[in-house]
Design brief:
The chain has 384 residues and is an alpha+beta fold. The chain binds acetoacetyl-coenzyme A (CAA) and flavin-adenine dinucleotide. Acetoacetyl-coenzyme A binds next to helix 5, helix 7 and helix 11. This is Acyl-CoA dehydrogenase family protein.
């Protein structure tokens, strides 16, 4: 067992930390207040190779391992979770899904610019569309239909809560082709945002990750060529589940970053703020909160790294990624609330950052499978 990071992993971690401090930190409070999509930050992430981190270089990616991805996600999420959710969706849902299950032609046409995050010099990212107004956790109950018309599918329906909904150029859309086959009748289709029949709704006004662009997207008689189906006929739900196992490592790392960002702020504050004639860190109630934060964050990090290691070593990481996501998101929520408490009244205002981290933490317990869904995946996995 070796807990040391390699030299390359340390370099990536430092690059991500520097990027978070120099590019993400300036304006983070204003972007949150104004719900401004961090386009400039995402564009610079693309230039750094962080939008296709694990994609092989021959498809425009950086060819890094999943451990490096966890390290980078943690550092960026310490500062701006609206940037990191966009990074997570593009890397581990869209790029990974196409790399693992796409055809060579799909990889050339879509994966390569998506991994570079740019096409013709413009931002080029993707979105993953499983959720619907009546099919969130209950993801097999897809109402969106992809009617088989011979050489194309006719796509109709509504997807909601879509991250990168308006800024993405490419969507991976899950839709029902054959209701009678249930989950085996679902297909995943590659859809371009500017095709006729695609309509993007208004941006959601959210509690947290307010810079991230979350939208409802409607499809009306959208013609999707057969060659844009990912995998065999009926593979769409399995595709979603397999891809989400990797996606959950991304969101686990996001939660880990939110937790460690909140902890670092709380620790520094506790060293300087005085009450009753001494720094508040000298009050055991505060010191013990910091001890618990440190311990839980370390445990969350180990779960994230183990899931990443399993993925890099081609093992089944379904249970590990759900455990990492569940534990890290619970840790993020708890740590961020306690970090506000350590700051007292100052924690309740925007300038000290912890109130934003507390709002951002909540979503990590909901998206890419709620905490309850992670417990379903873990319990089914260990009991089967
Ligand atoms: N690989 C292959 N097949 C799989 C599979 C996998 N990993 N997981 C499930 N399947 C198959 C099952 O074997 C089953 O096949 P049979 O009917 O032949 O047995 C079929 O798919 C249906 O599976 P389940 O019976 O397990 O399905 P279920 O209805 O009980 O649901 C669930 C299981 C775990 C709750 C699943 O629906 C789920 O994960 N829901 C949460 C959805 C989710 O995470 N959404 C995230 C959207 S993306 C997002 O959120 C992005 C973002 O915010 C940034
Ligand atoms: P529901 O499924 O209705 O759940 C409601 C409550 O019931 C939850 O507490 C849930 O855990 C619980 N529950 C449901 N079923 C069970 C059960 N069997 N056992 C125990 N408890 C249960 N989706 C995408 O496809 N792509 C995206 O890019 C995307 N981005 C998102 C961004 C944001 C900001 C948000 C808020 C959501 C996003 N989602 C996205 C959707 C997200 O994945 C869903 O919100 C999530 O899966 C939960 O679905 P739901 O909201 O329909 O809640």
């Amino acid at each position: 067992m070796n807990f040391e990071l390699t030299e390359e992993q340390l370099i990536i971690q430092k690059a991500a930390r520097d990027f978070a401090q120099s590019v993400c930190l300036p304006g983070v409070i204003e972007r949150d207040e104004q719900q401004k999509f961090p386009k400039e930050q995402i564009s610079q992430l693309a230039d750094l190779g962080f939008l296709g981190m694990m994609v092989p270089e021959k498809y425009g990616g950086a060819g890094m391992d999943t451990i490096s991805y966890v390290l980078a996600m943690e550092e960026i999420s310490k500062v701006d979770a609206s940037v990191s959710v966009c990074m997570s969706v593009n890397n581990s849902l869209v790029c990974y899904g196409l790399e693992a299950y796409g055809t060579e032609a799909q990889k050339q046409k879509y994966l390569t610019p998506l991994a570079q995050g740019k096409k013709d010099g413009e931002l080029y990212i993707g979105a993953f569309m499983l959720s619907e107004p009546e099919a969130g956790s209950d993801a097999t109950s897809q109402r969106t239909t992809a009617e088989d018309k011979g050489d194309y599918y006719l796509l109709n329906g509504t997807k909601n809560w879509i991250t990168n909904g308006s800024s993405a150029s490419v969507y991976l859309v899950m839709a029902q082709t054959d209701m009678a086959k249930g989950s085996k009748g679902i297909n995943t289709l590659i859809v371009e945002k500017d095709w006729p029949g695609v309509t993007v709704g208004a941006k959601e006004n959210k509690l947290g990750i307010r810079g991230s662009d979350t939208h409802t997207v409607m499809f009306t008689d959208v013609k999707v060529p057969k060659e844009n189906r990912v995998g065999d006929d009926g593979f769409g739900f399995a595709f979603a589940m397999k891809t989400l196992a990797g996606g959950r490592i991304g969101i686990a790392s996001q939660a880990l970053g939110i937790a460690s960002g909140a902890y670092e702020l709380a620790k520094e504050y506790a060293k300087t703020r005085k009450a009753f004639g001494t720094e508040i860190m000298n009050h055991q109630a505060i010191a013990f909160k910091l001890a618990d934060m440190h311990m839980k964050i370390d445990a969350a990090r180990l779960l994230c790294l183990k899931a990443a290691w399993e993925k890099d070593n081609h093992k089944d990481y379904t249970i590990s990624s759900s455990m990492a996501k569940l534990y890290s998101s619970e840790t993020a929520m708890w740590t961020a609330i306690e970090a506000v408490q350590v700051h007292g009244g100052y924690g309740y205002v925007k300038e000290y950052h912890v109130e934003r981290l507390m709002r951002d933490a909540k979503i990590t317990q909901i998206y890419e499978g709620t905490s309850e869904v992670q417990r379903i995946v873990i319990s089914r996995g260990i009991l089967k």
